[in-house]
Structures are given as C-alpha cells and as structure tokens.
Amino acid sequence: MATGLHIAFFGSSLVSAYWNGAATYYRGLIRALAARGHHVTFYEPDAYDRQKNRDMLEDPAWARVVVYSAQGTDDVHRCLEEAGDADVIVKASGVGVFDTLLEAAVLDLKGPDNLVIFWDVDAPATLERVCEDSSDPFKPLIPRYDAVLTYGGGDPVVRAYEALGAKQCVPIYNALDPMTHHPVPPDPRFQADLGFLGNRLPDREARVEEFFLKAATMLPGRRFMLGGSGWEDKAMPSNVRYVGHVYTADHNAFNCTPLAVLNVNRDSMARFGFSPATRVFEAAGAGACLITDHFTGIEEFLEPGREVLTAHSGEDVAEQVRSLTPERARSIGEAAMKRVLSHHTYAHRAADVEALLNGKLARRAAQTVAVAGGLA
C-alpha cells in the first residue's frame, strides 16, 4: 500500500493549546505524518475559548483545519459527511463537544475501503470510566473500531482494551518534535530553581500539592515557578511564583531557564504507568534537567539517575532540588536530549502509525479480493 493516505481527524484542537493538553501530541504526529506524504484534515469545535486563545494564529501548512460550531449539530454533521471520503477516519478522545455523537457517528462511515480508528489521548481515564459505568455509551462501540490507538499505557492499557473487545490496541507514545521543542537561551521571566507547567485538573491537583507545593514548603529559601491555567486562587507558599498560562512559543524558555523542571502525572496515568506526558519529551528535547514523579515504565523512555531524576514524594523532590548542581543538571539534560532525539521523536512515531495503517488497509484489500474471488 502506497503512502499518501487521506486522514480525517476529529480532535480537541490543533491550533490552540488553551485548556488542551493534547495539542503538542497532535501537532507532532500530524506534522510528521504530513512529512511522510499523508494528508490530514483536522476537525475541531469552536469551544472553551480555544479559538480566542490560539497559539497558532495561522493554520499550519501541513494540515487542513476545519473549525465547526459547538452550538447545534448541523456543522458537525456536515464535517462527518465530508470525512466519509477519507481513507482513515479518526475519533480522538476528549474532543469536549459532541463526543458521544462522534464516537457513534464515525462508525457509520465504515466501508470496505477505509479504516475507523479510536485514538485515546487519555486511555487510563477512559478505561476507568467505562469499567466503572456499565451503561457508558462508548463501551459497546469499542469492538466496532478497526483499532484503538493510545498515547500511552503500555501492556496494562492494551490488555484492558482487549478485554473490552478491541480488535487491536496499540500505544503510540508521546514524543519530541525537534522543530518545536529545542534548547534556547535562558529567559529572566522564568528564573527559578524548579518549574512546573500543567493545567489545574481534579485528577492532578492532589499530586501537584504533594510533589510541587510540599517541596516548595520544605525549601523556603529556593525559588519555585508554577505555570498553567486555573491556579489563580490556589493557596501557595510565598516562594512559589505563578506565571499563568504559558503559550507554546514560551515552552522552550520555560524548560531551559530553571535549574530543573518537574513532571507530575495525573492520578490515572500514575496508576497505569507507561504513560510519559508530553511535557517529559518537551523538557528533554530542550535539554532541561527533568524531575518526574516515578511511574512504572519510565526506564523505557529515559534512564533514571542519568537522563532523568525520579521522585516518590514531595520530600524526594525537595532533596533532588537541594542536592542538584548546575553541572549535574546540565549533564542530565544533555543525556536526555540525546536519548529522545535518537529514539523518541514524532518521526519515529509517525513511521509506526504509517506501518500499522498501511498494513491494515492492505489486509482489508486482500480480504475484499478473496471474497470477490470466492463469489465469482
């Protein structure tokens, strides 16, 4: 099967990272797929003020973006009708508007010559939801998709989706887009000993309190910096500086300036493991010294102690910051950058996606020919 697939992708947003943690993942993968000759139309709703807070002011040259209204369903149905001509139709999790409608409607577009894929960018949370609620409308749809792709989770997520009847479940992990995330000079706006960047979410907040705010409390003489949306009214130690939403264009400076940056997994990601957040690869790609709350499978991506520092508690984070020298921080950051450039870029991930999609389409075509031959 030749390259040059037409892919229709229903996701949260490609052009805005505002309240949209999947933006970097979408951009990296879709840009890399375009570089391999594929053509993506990304359908996204005009919702959550994302269009008012775009960090891509112009639509990218490597994807066609269609924004549909979040008021009423006429617009989204027009998008679905157009998407029916694609070789591959993708419904991502967490679009935020019309998710239930889309999860069922894309399956109605299945035909003998296309694939319909569910792409789960928050698989642990999705699995917990459907397993706890037997009436969840997505649950009976899972076996009807040609495949489920996830942005993490490893074998635990694969086994869980297969137990729910998925034909195939394949993790396509977060990665680095070197064109977007790379070393830059330090920026005085982001001077700190430890920086953390993440939106305030219910299933992350307690872990931020443990791994970030507790560490700040234990090190009153050190400077901590918090970035992300929603933290305005959060009680914080006096040595924590809140810088609000950090646009993608500033992520490199945010990562390169502090002595170290922190990754804190959401509850479900920490429980399932094998789910490095986008921030892990962004920081590594910028050559930052990264401290992450420990999760199962971290060594699959970065080597603890040499390419990343890990912590099981706020006390661990405080000790890592207390003992970290600029020389060691620089050494860890350089080793991490070398590792991700060698093994964990979106070019690597796009090659995996291409092989999977082309393989499935080739098998579908062969089955169609065999059936036709049998009927002749």
Notes on the protein architecture:
- With 376 residues, this protein is an alpha/beta fold.
- The chain folds into 2 domains: 6-175 and 346-375, Glycogen Phosphorylase B (Rossmann fold), CATH 3.40.50.2000; 188-343, Rossmann fold (3-Layer(aba) Sandwich), CATH 3.40.50.
- The chain is 38% helix and 16% strand.
- It has helices spanning 23-35, 74-83, 99-105, 123-132, 154-163, 205-218, 251-256, 267-272, 278-285, 314-323, 326-343, 346-375, and strands at 6-10, 39-46, 64-69, 88-92, 115-120, 147-150, 169-171, 194-197, 224-227, 240-244, 260-263, 290-293, 309-311.
- The strands form 2 sheets. A 7-stranded parallel β-sheet has the order 3-2-1-4-5-6-7, sandwiched between helices. Strands 10-9-8-11-12-13 form a 6-stranded parallel β-sheet, sandwiched between helices.
- Helix 1 packs across helix 12 (346-375), helix 6 crosses helix 10 (314-323) and helix 9 packs across helix 11 (326-343).
Nearest-angstrom radius of gyration?
Answer: 21 Å
Poorly predicted runs of 5 or more residues:
none
From the N-terminal CA to the C-terminal CA, the straight-line distance is 24 Å
Number of strands: 13
Strand order of the largest sheet: 3-2-1-4-5-6-7
> Counting H and I runs of at least 4 residues, what is the number of helices?
12
Q: Structural class per helix/strand content?
A: alpha/beta
Quote the CATH topology of the largest domain. Answer: Rossmann fold
Give the helices and strands, then pairings.
Layout: E1 6-10, H1 23-35, E2 39-46, E3 64-69, H2 74-83, E4 88-92, H3 99-105, E5 115-120, H4 123-132, E6 147-150, H5 154-163, E7 169-171, E8 194-197, H6 205-218, E9 224-227, E10 240-244, H7 251-256, E11 260-263, H8 267-272, H9 278-285, E12 290-293, E13 309-311, H10 314-323, H11 326-343, H12 346-375
Parallel strand pairs: 1-2, 1-4, 2-3, 4-5, 5-6, 6-7, 8-9, 8-11, 9-10, 11-12, 12-13
Helix pairs in contact: 1-12, 6-10, 9-11
